[in-house]
Amino acid sequence: MVDAPAIPFNRPSFGPAAMDHLTAVMRSGQTSGDRAVSRRCEALLAEITGSARVFLTPSCTGALEMSALLLDVGPGDEVIVPSFTFTSSANAFVLLGARPVFVDSRPDTLNLDAAKLDALVTARTKAVVVMHYAGVGCEMDAVTELARRRGIAVVEDNAHGLMGSLGGKALGSFGVMSTVSFHETKNLACGEGGALFLNDPALVARAEMVREKGTNRERAAGLVMLWVIGMVVVRLARGVVLLDRPITDDEHSVRFGAQVLLTGQCMAPSPGPTEIFPQLFLFTRGGRVASFDFLGPQLVWVAEFGGHLNGLLIAALGALPLPALAYAVGRRRTAAWGLAAALLFVASPTGALFSITSHANTFSRGLIALSAALAVWAAGSPSLARWAAAGLSLGAAGLCRPAEVFLLSAPLAVMAVVRAARGSRDDRTALAGLLLGVLPWFALFALHNRCVTGHALLHARFAPSELVHNWNHPPTTRLQNFGGNFAYNVLLLGVWFLGPLGLPLVALGAGRDKVLAGVAAGVALGLALAILHPDPGIHLIGPIHYADSTVALALLAVAGLARLADSRYARLVDRPRAVATLAVAVGLAGAVLAGWTAATLQKHAVAEEVLAAQLSPERLGRAVVLVPPRRWILEGTPGLPGVPFLRAVGSHERAWPPNDPALSDPVLLLHDLPGAEDVARRRFPERRLLRLQLIDRPPWMRIVQVPAGPTVSPKRR
Fold first, then answer.
1. Which residues are marked as active site?
2. What is the pLDDT of residues 239-266, one digit of tens each?
3. Any idea of the CA torsion for 110, 116, 122, 125, to the nearest 10 degrees?
């Protein structure tokens, strides 16, 4: 008998440089996973399929097991698999308790028969696994359409199909994820090994945890560190730049409301005649008074005053967009892109500088960012509790600025309702959780309205008040608002967000996917609110009425930057160098504008501090001071120049702040009008009665004792 030569099943092929690469790796000392060579391989594989991320694994079986974990497959679930496939296609899911449901295979391609899938899908079906046998593409159009219609995931077992395509699209790019094998029998041989290709960016962060055996300590520590650093910077900047002062009149109203709430009431007794006691942005009804602003910012100040937090809660909310953006983008893409989102927010002058203020939009913006992060967290592993947490954060943001938050989130809310109506279990859970989280805040909003205005759905801003505010707004038409307010704010938002580069990046990001398109639609709706508002707002730190949109703009801009980096044109340049150059350009432009604005803000704060020093308890003791209209100090009157240093820098505080509800402040301010002296002597006989007068020479104002007798004009020279 003659021995016949053995015919090998396969002969793996290795290129001439293979040994050189292996030697270089061994000499580098970096022989474990997730090092430089591993990352280069993952990046090259991602370019082949256009996947969001690729993870090298010990085998294709290991990649399939990761896919089962990422899909939260468990007992009671069903997974459809081909009748002709390797055992791992089914075993990976059976190991977690799922039941395999086998679909017949076609005799011509040996792939699954897509025409027989629909009859096998039940309410328990979690996913369908397709295998591209011998690199021949399965009927993916029919499979993906069925999966979309029935709300199930598609996993491609692409062990044979790396570098194959179907209809011009790479095999492995159709499903939510795919797997390949580098066994010596496969197209690309490495002896052993495999890879998991993720086409859904939302799964990236969780996949990193799964591959690292459930740990994410480094990322969590990084996010906490980012938040702490942000809080420290915000708190210091608030003290150094703003001298812990407010920047607008309505912040005084919010603090007044918090002081009222700390008494256990929603309204306090009116201090007296509304024309004599400063009451701008307050609401009066039935002889009682409350803040004109929304409940959310008042509750923040309740916590600040009640907990003696010295601005720490305000700093925490101001810095909250940094870790929230880093987490939200990092989970959908990579940690590096998450950090890029946080840096884009900081590079934006309106993002960075608005964070150091105590304006209500600072609080709502921080909570909107937290809502986005919690929504991404909930989408990665859907549960009622997770989505309720996202709803709680969104509801708290709405309690600060209801109209802005409602319009910003409305397109995404409509999308959630539509998806839930189509029958997806996860989408119904998401909608139910969001509603569960929002409803308590809505109930609190209605309860507070009922207490203040007498009507649950009527807020003090829109209710008839016994106190008439002079807004100094001439009558305008909707067309005038559009030209003078809407268009103006769009222009300035572009300037203050990221300058000339910002809006193109935002536009590019809006087209990346449906969710981001919904985010962009929310920004547009929020801006459209300007058509109903005759006041273009304050632009010292960007459009103050639209500061909430900065978080959404940062998400869109980083998506646009990522889309640019992923485009075929990016391959023509050195991407790391190009991204670094763009980042430096944006950062420098933002730093110049932010630095100039911070210097201007500090001038305002110093000027206001000089005025406050004139009225300090250390100087006056317990006193009542009759003050002229604040605009006289800023603008002067006929014959009197006002206060030059205040007029030079200007101010957005146009009225005197209200006294505390109990009238217990050491120094109380009353408008110097006829009858004010009598009110002061009758109500506060134990206090000194003083008058702030403007004069026509330095120091331009003085405090004098009010003598007994007739009232003296506040314009006495």
1. 186
2. 999 999 998 888 999 999 999 999 999 9
3. 20
Number of domains in the chain: 3
**Residues sharing a CB contact under 8 Å with residue 555, sequence separation 6 or more, in sequence order:** 325, 328, 329, 341, 372, 509, 516, 519
Q: Are residues 500 and 416 in the same domain?
A: yes
**Is 390 a member of any domain?**
yes
d(CA 338, CA 329): 5
Tokens of 621: 């003791």
Tens digit of each residue's pLDDT (9 = 90 or more) over 160-212: 888 899 988 999 899 999 999 988 778 777 778 899 999 987 788 778 778 77
Residue 283: inside a domain, yes or no? no
Quote the Cα angle for 672-678-684, to 5°: 95
- pLDDT tens digits, residue range 654-677? 789 999 999 999 999 999 999 999
Residue 714: pLDDT over 60: no
Q: Which two tokens stand for residue 182?
A: 């580098």
- Does residue 169 form part of some domain? yes
Q: Domain span at residue 626? A: 613-705
The answer to whether the Cα torsion of 280, 283, 286, 287 is positive or negative is negative
26 in a structural domain: no
The candidate with the shortest Cα–Cα distance to 256, out of 315, 317, 302, is: 302
Chain center to CA of 624: 45
Q: CA–CA separation, 693 vs 714, rounded Å?
A: 6
CA 710 to chain centre: 58
pLDDT tens track for 72-93: 888 989 999 999 988 888 999 9
